[in-house]
């Protein structure tokens, strides 16, 4: 079983850029990226990216909720995935696709408070 994956260089750059302005760490941003990718509702099979970015540990990404992440990705794909397919292949693809979506949504919001408000409908309105 594989326990690490490497994101794309673009994902690393996105996480670094957002991290600088928000102090959010990659282990937080990766979950947002996965969520945005899953919400996109398109199969990820054709998404391709390099492996020149961050090295992330499976435990850091999914923690005790690994089975839940796997089921969500299986539902998005409409089929059962073997552990070898799920991690790192599909997980990496969702992280990399989701990072691009996260960047777009964060830039549209303009700052962390507005991003949180627009994403979750919580926080102070400014």
From TrEMBL:
InterPro entries, alphabetized: DNA_S_DndE (IPR014969), DndE_sf (IPR038472)
UniProt cross-references to Gene3D superfamilies, sorted A to Z: DNA sulphur modification protein DndE (1.10.1220.160)
Protein name: DndE family protein
Native source organism of the sequence: Gemmiger gallinarum
